[in-house]
Fold:
Amino acid sequence: MSGRLFLGRVLGVSAQLSGAGLLLTSAWLIVRAAEQPPVMFLMVAIVGVRFFGVARTALRYAERLVTHDVALRRVVDVRVRALEAVEQQAGRVADAGRRGDLVRRVVADVDAVQDRLLRVRGPWIVAIATTVTVVIAVGLILPAAAVVLLLGSIAAMAVVRLTGSVSADDSLTAARAELATEVSNEAVAAPDLIVASAISGEKLISKVDRIAALERRAAWRAGSAQGFVLVCTAVATGLIAMLAGDLDAVMVGVVVLAPLALAEPLEALADAERFRPDVESAEQRLQALFDAAPVMGDPAEPAPLPEAWDLEIDNLAVGWTDPLVSGIDASVPAGSAIVVTGRSGVGKSTLALTLARFLQPLAGQVRLGGVDLATMAKADVRSRIGLLSQDEVVFDTTVRENLRVADPEADDAQMEQALIDAGLGPWFVTAKKGLDTMVGEHGSALSGGERQRLAIARLLLAGHRIWVLDEPTEHLDDPTSEQLLADLLALRPRISLIIISHDPRVLGRIDHHLHLSTEPLAPLGGLGRGGPRLVP
Amino acid sequence: MKPIDPRLIRRSAAVRRHLVAAIVLGVISVGVARYCGGRGVTGVAVAAAAAIAGRGLLGWAQTVVAAQAAARVKVDLRAEVIEDLLDPRRVGARPSSARTINLLGNGLDALDAYIGRFLPQVVLAAVVPGVVVAVMLFADLWSGVIVAFTLPLIIVFLVLVGLRTQDEIGRRWRAVDRLGRHFADVLDGIVVLASFGRNQAEGIRQTGDKHRVETVRSLRVAFTSAVALDLFSTLSVALVAVEVGLRLVYGDISLATGLFVLILAPEAFLPVRKLGAHFHDSTEGVDAVNAVMEVLDHPRHPGSKESPDPRREAIELADVQVQYDDRAQPALEIDRLVILPGVVTAITGPSGCGKSTLLSLLLGLQLPSQGHIDVAGVDLTEVDPQRWREHVAWVPQVPGVVAGTVTDNVRFGLDDAEVSDVEVAAALRDAGAADLAPDRVLGESGVDVSAGERRRIAVARAVLRARRGVASLVLLDEPTAGLDADREEQVIDTLRSLNVTVVLVSHRAATLAAADRVVTLANSTTAVQA
Structure:
């Protein structure tokens, strides 16, 4: 436990003990006052009541400050760990839909981590420490009462803890995740499905109803647990009142009210247990994420990045678990261009991910400057090979921040030049806020073409030597795509281009073609190999 | 800021019921405490224990009632959001999916504290102090007067606290929002960030630290003001105690009355103090309600007239303009455009000239900012949008899929029994989707379907709807994107053979060449007709 967290716990326990002190001194004060002693005999108790009253408030808020601070620090650490884990798996979540689910889950699970600290563990530590202290204090006055108090508290804690074990069916987190999946599905799907007049919110409503039912059930469970704590309190109070018959009247009040002083921290446990199932399932999922084997790890001793950037693809097989396409051979000398073609689904995008080291080759190898990519660090490879994927993500922030992803040091002039070079000049002129224009969620404030060109502007700012472009002209109109293609080709020989496309405009402008196909081809010329080949 | 949103109370019967229950429980609990506390003689300890236990029991009942009410209110609001999102008359931009998920998920949890704790406390704070002061005035005039004077001061203080924390809480809410989106955004863009070699760990740390500082700072404000509030009411009670003590010494009042007044005095302040402690619940609760209201607040399609059939009628656009608030130039500007029935019209033009907006207009998903669209002399804005859309098939850039097989998705919205598998297979084949197995099962979230596959399924759906005579106007946004030349040709042939009005957005030369008419939208003004 860190010093800060320890401080938070001490503050929490002290606040609760002040509450107990407040009640018990008040009890003493009232009974003593009823005996009508001179006022001075009451002074200490009066000061005590005021002191405990103020201290309770002050300590509780200090505790909240400290523990929130600790919890938020810890969340940041978990976020970083989760980010690193997701990065290791990036190849697996290259698909936007798959990624959306993962992102939502991880964000929610990470937030649940702070609940454990603040809402589950905190109340338990406070309750146990307070119980022990009060039991000892009462033990000094009347040992039998202390035993009753201890047994009552243990019974209450045990029952409360049992209400926290809920079957997986009842998990609110799971129900909420289901709803989130459904919503994101509907949100994407809704417009055209609504037009088809065949969509109903029944499924969503039933999920919302289920969440409400679970919430109500959780409230009832916590309520019954609280009720049981009250029963324990009442029974303990009655027993102690019977045991305290011989005691000095002033002390009777203190001993009899002791169970009530413990009722508050014990009741708080009922609330804490409401969070336990969700917190625990979130932690399990995060642990599974951390433990998952990386799709793409770095070699133990990465080879240095070579200066040369000729790319050789040698008998390569790509795919997730089984090869989609194999026997790919191609050579992309530094500063040249090649078009990759093939039917939809043949593995063109998978090849792109493999080249950018998001996926491990299933067979064969790719060599950069004569060095096998698999022997180099991912980061090194990606500093040479840039990727423009098909559903390129633009971030829901300003144009400037989107460009800074590629080059944090770029100044406004460089960014504007990149936008113009990517063909966004006319758009930029009409954007009221210039580089500070927001692009919207998934770039929704931009048209499909503008989104693509923003991604290209980003690529222009980064210092890659080899660009792998997955359908770069897909959403562009004729003149723009002609222009873009010309601009791209003019980047040679500074940059090599690997363009995945079946756009005839692209095919016509680049001589080297790599056709991916799963059907074996008749051997051709001197190459003598089946399968995909570099067609000169 | 209004701590109680009247819209919420009007909207929700659950809130009203809960408020009544909370008041009754609260008043009873004060009464129980007072009744037992008042007879401070011999069995004082047991009486007090019974009083406090009774109060605890009522407090528990209050909690359960509050939780139930909050759950019910949240269901009502969530259902309203869902209905709104699926409302065919909804016009204009849709809330982002992240925002919707937040509203339907944790975003409304602030209402638990707001409805459960704050609202009843408001009522208790309004009722209890008055009752207590009245009782005190009756029992002992002087003490009553002191409390009656100090209480308003506390309330003034409470208002000041509210004004002070309002900004802080607002800032924190925004910080939380920003942070939440930042982390999700970074995860979502992990492939891009990794391919640019950007390590986001530092950014996550910085944003997280900023959020932590914001949170702790606003908590500190709440902390200082709450402690000050506590001190102030403690002082007021001490004033009563001193006055009672002195008069006791001179024998002006009986001990019983003195004790009664002393025990009663803090009760006058307690509900107000609690209100102060729960004040941030109200800001967060009101913000949550506001977020819901913002989503619900948007124009609706006003049309109610019977729909003309686009099969035989031309669609005429005159002086049409669509203007978004955040852009200097209109998103779409068309002086005049006539879409003739039975003709394949292709819309092209540079990115951002409003091609997709034009389709939204034709669908009634967007209303023109000015000008009008007429079909057979009827303004489309006045036509019931659902009736109109019965005649329309639409293929957006990223179409939706429903859980089920490819076949289910193609004959979606049609009577299953009437549409044979042969027809579905033919539609798929003619939509360039012969490689999609009709019995392939598509996942609930459509995760395993690529954008290209979605589009081909949607084209098949549109083809089937047109062939069944359901749709006589087919709108397609980039239907041939991502297709190789053979399949592009196949799709165009199919669309031409439908003999219905087709409006398609494209920039592909082969697609444009095959259209009967090509309309080029310019970024500037007029639609040029070729």
